[in-house]
Amino acid sequence: MATGGVDLLRRRDFRSSEKEFNHGNDGSLVASRVRGYRCRRENGSVSGSRRSGFCGREAWTNSGEASKVEDVDVVQVPPENKRKISPIIWDREEDRKVSFKKRVLPATPGHESVVKSVCQVSEVVSKCEASEIDKKVELSTQVEAAAADDLVEPFLPKISGGFSSEELLHQYGGVQQQDQVNEDVKIETRNILTSRWASEGDSPQHVSDDVWNADSRRSSTPESGEFQREDSAGYRSAISCSDDEDGFHIGSGSGSRCSGSGSRSRSSKREPSLDFMDGYDSRDARTNQVYCGEEDDDELLQIEEPAASTSHRVNMLQGCRSVFEYEKLNKINEGTYGIVYKAKDKKSGEIVALKKVKMDVNKDDGFPLSSLREINILSSFSHPSIVNVKEVVMDDDDGVYMAMEYMEYDLKGLMETMKEPFSVSEVKSLMLQLLEGVKYLHDNWVLHRDLKTSNILINKDGELKICDFGLSRQYGSPRKPYTPLVVTLWYRAPELLLGTKEYSTAIDMWSVGCIMAELVAKEPLFRGKTEVEQIDKIFRTLGTPNETIWPGFSKLPGSKAKFVKNPYNLLRRKFPATSFIGSPVLTDSGFDLLSKLLAYDPEKRITVEEALNHRWFVEAPLPRSDFKPSLPVLQGKNRYPGSRLREKFSHL
Ligand SMILES: Nc1ncnc2c1ncn2[C@@H]1O[C@H](COP(=O)(O)OP(=O)(O)OP(=O)(O)O)[C@@H](O)[C@H]1O
């Protein structure tokens, strides 16, 4: 039931979201475009489907006894709280031809973004020094690639007096449909120098240093022109676009297949998988990390400029600084897609985290798509619960780094070193911040798709921030089905495990549910080693779903497999209301939230907004914020940042 506090929260959320839209760099252009896009996708969302704020499986008694898995819908969610789901459009060849005019508009913002991304990265890395001729060639390659992918780019930017999309299209044979598009749609041609990426007086800076890394000390500080030419040429050859049967490609050499982070070439191991998964890319059993499938090659095209504030946006055309501007302090961690270092800005003394983009799989395949996607998304976002990318820098060896705000801990590491689980008020603090970050993503039509404890960072001020957007994607107007092989196994939603290709924000909410359970219990909830084992563990705990509690379940590709038949939901047994043996406990409302996050039916799973307004957050013990934690005293203290907590609970 909505309380005064809930209302206050809701009002605040709406206000902030309006503010975000209005703060786009392009002012009203961005705002209106994003709003239009949202509207379109609102229309495409699933409506009229029965929603429930209470999943039948949660019919648990406080005693912790198991109840029969059945559908008990008691709360109807107002129609405006629709799940944002992506209507999947199968990309048949005839559709491509027939519906080109219709599809070009939704596609262009994303395509603009990928071309912009390529330009950004290539421009950043080449220090914006490409000659006019080189630019023509490079951009024409992009245009041709786009054309081959049947996505005309009417927004293709002019770079430093370069060539507009129209000029390039005509000059290089472009795409026939361009004229057709222009007949129907008058689209403002945007100049990248007036975009969010540019600023007046942009000029490349090149400072080299020999203290960063012995391996990358190949050249001493060069004369800028010489350095730039060499570097520029080298990098331009590494970033180009081509198209093959899989769709858009960014990489060197014509016709080479996209590798990115999502390439098959990364898939060295293949774990036992369900039959229906065959045909999709493999995942690394060691890291539990999945590799993006074909849709990800293409999906980068869909990334639209988010409705984020401009406060910290990375100016990609500024000309990237050298990594030698930083003093490397130590290696923090190494993930699937990058090595993360702690470093100090020599000029400002600021401590940052530098994530080096891994290029080592097959350098010829070009810049990893996941990194391009991550840079694109992170550099556009501004939210207290999303890690802030300060700039992109590079070394002398074409190594590209993201300089991010430094966060002292990640949740996984923190929980491993903690002796006791988080207190309830700490869990609430962390959950609130996590949900706020996820809300920001979903409000901006981005699915994170890899929420897990190692991607949740915490700083010494108790602030939580989501990182690792390598698997993120913008959703809403997909051209192909999504791959179900996203989200690290332990946090992967059942619909993904069962092979759905139509998924929504609900997949992130499932991950949030797994994280909440882990925060409370101090250990992962479902720890499968394979997809089959993962599903099995879920079914054993939550009960085997059926068509009654999850309409559409039986149509999922994986539902035909022989799974354990467990008619009972045993979740409450894992999280009882009271315990004398030290089990993690949850009050009724805490358990209600967890159950709703772990609802089988994605349509019934709680949305981020509903979760933020859940009564658990306003019942005692409340999250408190009067402490700046630092390990080892972090343990047992509350970490919700003071100002945000005061704002959120000012009514109490
Ligand atoms: N801004 C940061 N400050 C401090 N540490 C960070 C920061 N960003 C990342 N890390 C650390 O580096 C690790 C790996 O980072 P990240 O998840 O971005 O890389 P990845 O290669 O994409 O990882 P994954 O294998 O999860 O996909 C994180 O788990 C965290 O421990």
UniProtKB/TrEMBL annotation:
<dbReference type="InterPro" id="IPR008271">
    <property type="entry name" value="Ser/Thr_kinase_AS"/>
</dbReference>
<keyword id="KW-0067">ATP-binding</keyword>
<dbReference type="InterPro" id="IPR000719">
    <property type="entry name" value="Prot_kinase_dom"/>
</dbReference>
<feature type="compositionally biased region" description="Low complexity">
    <location>
        <begin position="255"/>
        <end position="265"/>
    </location>
</feature>
<dbReference type="GO" id="GO:0005524">
    <property type="term" value="F:ATP binding"/>
</dbReference>
<dbReference type="InterPro" id="IPR050108">
    <property type="entry name" value="CDK"/>
</dbReference>
<dbReference type="Pfam" id="PF00069">
    <property type="entry name" value="Pkinase"/>
</dbReference>
<feature type="region of interest" description="Disordered">
    <location>
        <begin position="196"/>
        <end position="281"/>
    </location>
</feature>
<comment type="similarity">
    <text>Belongs to the protein kinase superfamily. CMGC Ser/Thr protein kinase family. CDC2/CDKX subfamily.</text>
</comment>
<dbReference type="GO" id="GO:0004693">
    <property type="term" value="F:cyclin-dependent protein serine/threonine kinase activity"/>
</dbReference>
<keyword id="KW-0597">Phosphoprotein</keyword>
<dbReference type="GO" id="GO:0007346">
    <property type="term" value="P:regulation of mitotic cell cycle"/>
</dbReference>
<dbReference type="GO" id="GO:0005634">
    <property type="term" value="C:nucleus"/>
</dbReference>
<dbReference type="InterPro" id="IPR045267">
    <property type="entry name" value="CDK11/PITSLRE_STKc"/>
</dbReference>
<keyword id="KW-0418">Kinase</keyword>
<keyword id="KW-0547">Nucleotide-binding</keyword>
<feature type="compositionally biased region" description="Basic and acidic residues">
    <location>
        <begin position="215"/>
        <end position="233"/>
    </location>
</feature>
<keyword id="KW-0808">Transferase</keyword>
<dbReference type="GO" id="GO:0010556">
    <property type="term" value="P:regulation of macromolecule biosynthetic process"/>
</dbReference>
<feature type="domain" description="Protein kinase">
    <location>
        <begin position="326"/>
        <end position="617"/>
    </location>
</feature>
<keyword id="KW-0723">Serine/threonine-protein kinase</keyword>
<dbReference type="GO" id="GO:0080090">
    <property type="term" value="P:regulation of primary metabolic process"/>
</dbReference>
<dbReference type="InterPro" id="IPR011009">
    <property type="entry name" value="Kinase-like_dom_sf"/>
</dbReference>
<protein>
    <recommendedName>
        <fullName>cyclin-dependent kinase</fullName>
        <ecNumber>2.7.11.22</ecNumber>
    </recommendedName>
</protein>
